[in-house]
Amino acid sequence: MRIIVTGSKGKLGSAVVAYARAQGADVLGVDVVGAGDRRGYVCADLTNLGQLYDVLRHADAIIHLAAVPRAGEFTAARTLVSNVSSAYNILLAAHHLGIGRVVAASSIQVLHRAGHHIRAHFRYFPLDEDHPADPKDEYGLSKLMAEQAAQMFAHHYGMTIVSLRYVWICSAEEWATLPHPPPPAVAIDPLPFCVHVEDAARAAWLAATAALPPATHVVAFIAAPDIRFDMTTAEFLQRFYPHVPRRSVLHDHDAPISLIRARQAFGFVPHYACHG
Amino acid sequence: MKIVVTGSKGNIGSAVVDYARSQRAHVLGVDNVGRGDGLGNYIAADLTDLGSCYDVVRGADAVINLAAIPDSKMFPNAQTFMTNVAITYNVFLAAAHLGVKRVVWASSIQVNHTVPPHRPVRYRYFPLDEDHPVDPQSDYALSKYVGEVIADAFARDFGLTTVSLRFTDVVTLQRWPTLPAPVDPGTQYPLPHYVHIHDCARACYLAATAPLPPGSHTVAFIAARDTHIDMPSRELAQRYYPDAELRADIQDHDALISGKRAEEAFGFVPQFSCRSR
């Protein structure tokens, strides 16, 4: 099985490459860093459609992780246009080349951004994929637009696409610092979700390889089963979201986010929890 | 049969589109002029952009790639060369990657000498043929020569069937009534080769559709069977190109260029002569 991983030099990308190779996949990594090594890595600009057609050929599945990873690294328009164009280009080229499966890194930022001056308007907890999207910056917007593009290519061009809404992806070093002290009450929408990079990588692999029907777009949150703060979930919600309805009972440190979709659709269950 | 014709708004391109459609081919025209019709008959694209090339050539049985800056001195040298080579390479690459079996493209007699000549023209023999040494003398001519090298490489490396058509002086309908003409008194090197635009268009179509060995690269001059100069051909050759060896029995106004390759490879025989109208 040949898998192309874009953004392969990033935190998540390098973990996905390693995991997929461990599973026996033939992996070609693509990123904008350095120069290709003429074996498993090629350097390409994914906002350039022509380069994409070239590098994507012969793939069975594409795991598209390349993106400007947050607002503020570049000007807003550049972040938006770069992320949307690379996402669209990937889908278009995959469609034209007959590659039936694309996994794309989306983000919880389609509906959540920590520390923004405008508070989030959550309708309920646990969050799930049916919760209305509400991006607050160009990064979240770019991810939402990419999900919309995926929807179109899945429904109208027969592709199978999985948009993985990642939360904060922690490297092993970052993971070792968890759980974190409870955030002060004045904090605005502190993000309680995290996921270990190895879980995040395995989720991408499963999404790329699990049996899924054609003409399907799956949107799924990928998160650890518990919150990253050293407080109970009840305390967390009481402190920051006392008026948001809760649709299920959340015990102990249970993350107020549903992981059902990822489990049901492609069998992903996180192995790493931050508490104990 | 689906044929993609690039440069479809140009003189030759529009004639090729018309002819191919008259032969019931499904034709997508591509050029960088105006906007597409949204119906798949014409689309505007910048073929120096590789992604656009992939998009427009997919699904084609053959590509007739005529898009190019059509001569020197219209743009700075480097732009002419880089643009033409980029288009040629991109179209070949996209075609090869997407499984398009055949690419015909417009080379030029200018690989042998510029038109009009701005340096001495050294014909070694007549009739001129495709084995004659080339001598590109301009950015444009060099871009065409490099294009032939690209066509050759893609035939060998990807199994594409490629045809480089070395167009001679392609005569439009407007200019046709002015021929044949006397030797231009201002030139030391009169160039007698020409082809009617309708013949040129038919040659493109034949090169795109005739049976050819897979993975072959054919280079062929596209020319009429006579000259477009009043002076008898033997006299013209002896007066202006005295060093050129005459390798055939050239009579009257017979062409000083061989059409054998195009005829043998893909059955092209010109139907137009400026002397028989």
The number of domains of chain A: 1
- From the 3D structure, determine the CATH topology of chain B: Rossmann fold
Question: What value does the average pLDDT of chain B take?
Answer: 96
Helix content of chain A: 25-40%
Shape of chain B: globular
Classify the secondary structure makeup of chain B into a structural class. alpha/beta
Outline type of chain A: globular
Question: Major β-sheet of chain A, in short?
Answer: 7 strands, parallel
Low-confidence runs of chain A = none
* Structure classification of chain A: alpha/beta
Overall mean pLDDT of chain A: 95
Tally of DSSP helical segments of chain A: 8
Ends distance of chain A = 37 Å
| Largest sheet entry of chain B | 7 strands, parallel
Q: Which regions of chain B contain 5 or more consecutive residues with pLDDT less than 50?
A: none
Explain how this protein is built.
The complex is a heterodimer of chains A (276) and B (277). Helix content of chain A is 34%, strand content 16%. Chain A has 8 helices and 9 strands. In chain A, α4 links the parallel β5 and β6. In chain A, α1 crosses α6, α2 packs across α3 and α3 runs parallel beside α4. Chain A is globular and about 50 Å long. Chain B is α/β, with parallel strands linked by helices and 277 residues long. Chain B has a single domain, classed as Rossmann fold (3-Layer(aba) Sandwich). Helices cover 32% and strands 17% of the residues of chain B. Chain B has 7 helices and 11 strands. The longest helix of chain B has 22 residues. Chains A and B meet through α2 and α3 of A and α2 and α3 of B.
Describe what is shown at a glance:
Chain A has 276 residues and is an alpha/beta fold. Chain A has helices at residues 11-22, 49-56, 76-97, 138-157, 172-176, 197-209, 233-240, 260-266, and strands spanning 2-6, 26-31, 41-43, 61-64, 101-107, 160-166, 168-170, 194-196, 216-222. In chain A, helix 3 (76-97) links the parallel strand 4 and strand 5 (101-107).
